[in-house]
Amino acid sequence: MRDFRDAKAMAHSLREALKAKSVSLTHSESLELVARTLGLPDWNHLAARIESSLPQLVPSGAIHPASVAVGAAIPIVPMRDLVVFPQMVAPIFVGREKTRRAIERALATDRRVLVVTQRRAADDDPQLDALYPVGVTADVINRVALTDGTLKLAISGLERAAVRKPVAEEFLAAEIAPIEESNGQTDKAVLLSRLVLDAYRMFANVDYSNVPPQLQARLHLPDIGDPGLLADTVAPLLPVSIEQRQQLLETSDVTARLEAILDLIKAAQKAA
Predict the structure, then answer these.
(1) Cα 138 vs. chain centroid, distance in angstroms?
(2) What share of the chain has pLDDT > 70, as a percent?
(3) What is the pTM of this model?
(4) pLDDT tens digits for 205-240?
(5) CA distances from 97 to 18, 82, 111, 267 (A)
(6) Coil, strand, or helix at residue 266?
(7) Which of 76, 209, 210, 224 is the most exposed place for a label (fewest CB within 10 A)?
């Protein structure tokens, strides 16, 4: 069975399938649709995720623990206008010297960082108290140094973590504690997942009715199998403020997060 790494082949199959039903798509449009059906906002995010799956991007001998231990120290990457969620793959740009040093430390060790959003985007040298208290641990899966010294990165979100206390380094670092989800596999969570998925498809005007069932299975269309993952997939796609996204990130109760997402979708529908 194909997975996200076969995205270009999926896009070709999708174009052929829709062509038979008199629906015409360009190659770029089919790539964007494949990205969205896989739960990502656009082709750039999917391309970054594909890069993350390539084994040569991870140095031999690198250790990737399933979870960061309580009290573990980790380099911090502060973000001005982005909230990263678990399982989210995103391209980011790093220009501040302290953050570049944090990235270099991560690449020299286990490639892990804590991505945390700033309370004030204009703050050029934020300290821990200028950041939100909850972020996401992430793998640095690719790095490219641009001619102006800026680093272009692809990061892959892992799990929620709370900042505990600062660690003295030449860059921003802190001890952190993983945050466990709750109520993720209840009947209520499954029901809310279905409601959120239906509401988002209607709001985003995503219609899979013309896609053959066999192709739907091959594209791994979003489903309600993992309510927490579904919530974290939909959350970054919503047209809401940084503060609202951060609040969703800080909500570890899956049913409460799904309810909040459903309310935000309904509000966006009324405002449209």
Answers:
(1) 10
(2) 72
(3) 0.73
(4) 876 566 665 555 555 455 567 899 999 989 998 999
(5) 49, 19, 18, 40
(6) helix
(7) 209
> What domains can you pick out in the chain, each with its CATH number?
4-53 (no CATH), 68-178 (2.30.130.40), 187-271 (1.20.58)
Residue in the block written with tokens 């192709």 = 215
SS3 (DSSP) at 105: helix
User: What single-letter DSSP state applies at residue 131?
Assistant: B
pLDDT tens, residue by residue, 235-269: 998 999 999 999 999 999 999 999 999 999 999 99
Question: For the chain, what's the residue count?
Answer: 272
Per-residue tokens: 47:
């391309």
Instruction: Evaluate the CA torsion angle 10, 13, 14, 15 in order and state its sign.
Output: positive
- Residue pair 136/115 in contact (Cβ under 8 Å)? The answer is yes
- Residue 190 above 70 pLDDT? yes
Q: Which residues contact 58 (CB under 8 A, 6 or more apart)?
A: 64, 111, 141
Our measurement of the distance from residue 44's CA atom to the centroid of its chain's CA atoms, rounded to an integer in Å, reads: 12
Which tokens is 57 given?
């991007």
CA distances from 1 to 5, 129, 225, 249 (A): 11, 47, 18, 32
Tell me the longest C-alpha to C-alpha distance in the chain.
Answer: 62
- State how far the Cα of 227 lies from the Cα of 233, in Å rounded to an integer: 10
| Alpha-carbon span 116 to 67, nearest angstrom | 17
Residue found under tokens 């996200």: 4
Cα–Cα distance measured from residue 135 to residue 175, given in angstroms and rounded to the nearest whole number = 12
Measured CA to CA in angstroms, residue 212 lies from 8, 16, 19, 136 at distances of 18, 11, 12, 37
